[in-house]
Amino acid sequence: MTHATADAPLWDRSAAELAAGIRAKSFSATEVAEAFLARIEATNPALNALVDVRPEEALAQAAAADAAVAAGGDLPPLLGVPVSTKINTSQRGYASSHGVPAWAGAVAQHDAVCIAALRQAGATLMGRSNSPAFAVRWFTANDLHGKTLNPWHPGHTPGGSSGGAAAAVAAGMTPISQGNDIGGSIRFPAYCCGAVGLRPTMGLVSGMEPRGAVEFDSPLSFQTMAVHGPLGWTVDDVRLGLHAMVTPDLTDPVGLAARPPLGEPRRVKVAVVRDAGAAKSHPAVNAAVDDAARWLSEAGHEVEEVELPLLGEAARLWSLLLYQELKTMMSEIDQFGDDGVRVSLASSFAAAAEIWGEQPTLTDYIRGYARRGTLISRLQQFLGQDRIVLTPVAAEPPFEQDADLAGDTRVSELLAAQSPMQAVPVLGFPAVSVPTGLRDGLPSGVQLIGGRFQEDLLLHVATAIEARAPRTRPTLSWTRTG
After folding, report:
1. pLDDT per position in the chain (482 positions), as tens?
2. Burial class of residue 250 (count of CB atoms within 10 Å of its CB; 0-12, 13-18, 19+)
3. Residue positions annotated with a catalytic role
4. Running DSSP on this structure, what letter comes out for residue 419?
5. Exposed/middle/buried for 31, CB within 10 Å: 0-12, 13-18, 19+?
6. Is the CB of residue 376 less than 8 Å from the CB of residue 254?
7. Pick from 42, 38, 116, 118: which is nearest to 78 by CA?
8. Within 101-157, where are the H helices?
9. CA-CA-CA-CA torsion sign (180, 183, 187, 189)
10. Pick from 396, 383, 394: which is nearest to 461 by CA?
């Protein structure tokens, strides 16, 4: 991997380097904020990754960080480190728009719990990252803020729904971005943009939002599958972001009472699962799995190829439970959503119907949740304390832009390709998307799945891949047209 050197521009340094440099007074938080604001000004017009950047607020936060350094005493871990937040997560003074024009004025009066945690950790909140309307596409576009482009190639998706977050990280606009994930919305954008993205264990990071201008009761699948988590350019960035965001919160229906203990780095057994769902992997995807498996073996981990059919079964359950519950939200989506989300969801429902039939019964739904519990137990037993699973992130390279608007047949292929990611949220386990380099000019990567609350072990293993994978920043040699 290519690491930033001591003379690298501030925007190309890791969150850990920035935090340490600010503490040591090697440079100030204001200098860091100015460097990232300049980088945003240079790159964001081409990408449209961040949609609400307020330089004066960022500089005011940086000045407060510099004052804290001057005063001495204990300093928070992310002091002065730039972080972006997603437009579907409440941040006081900013619209929780969800990419919906009718909600452009829905300004939050308070922070979501995870945003408050980042603020308490000292982060400089640099701007809001773009997302599809209602955060339910694997592509990032909406009628309020427009389309986000992939920094490697504008003809391919930056991923969704945290596509703006991933594009911002890859382009060097922030070292860390906050995102959320119910079916791959952190991991897939990280994969598409060549970043690192972690979906934490369910309940580790609070999902609670303040009572505000836009409020609705979340379906059960949102309560049991949707999580907040960090994206970063390096594994260390993601580790710092995660530790800042961990928020014991009993107001969250699945929240924890306390922080779980940190795990110790150690050698593990790596179970390589190539076929984690309904689609056979593209040759470029298989090559990424080969590389990662070889690198982990070189790092001293015990690697073996296995079959794990429960992952495919869990992915099929995801398409039943999530989509059946999304149908209950269609009145709001039809009223406030854009054509893209409506067309995409219609094709997604049709793809799910190929698996479960046009009208799954209440018995199907009840048995689905019952089966979920069994699969959770089986996967945890398989993983134990010393095994992780290595899979593709998706069975295809990053999709062509707006592929979910190309008709039911293509969307059925997309749904099948995303099976390795869909298996994870329905079971509530942690997983990280790790880059493995470029293939045919596009990022490639793999997914690591670990036991519940074993994020530190997952990130330790991810570091072994990162240390061996070739990494470069996108050059942004193309320019935005139209």
Report:
1. 545 566 899 999 999 999 999 999 999 999 999 999 999 999 999 999 999 999 999 999 999 999 999 999 999 999 999 999 999 999 999 999 999 999 999 999 999 999 999 999 999 999 999 999 999 999 999 999 999 999 999 999 999 999 999 999 999 999 999 999 999 999 999 999 999 999 999 999 999 998 654 556 778 998 999 999 999 999 999 999 999 999 999 989 899 988 888 777 889 999 999 988 778 999 999 999 999 999 999 999 999 999 999 999 999 999 999 999 999 999 999 999 999 999 999 999 999 999 999 999 999 999 999 999 999 999 999 999 999 999 999 999 999 999 999 999 999 999 999 999 999 999 999 999 999 999 999 999 999 999 999 999 999 999 999 999 999 999 998 864 44
2. exposed
3. 86, 161, 185
4. H
5. middle
6. no
7. 118
8. 113-120
9. negative
10. 383
Residue matched to tokens 């799945």: 449
DSSP type of residue 147: E
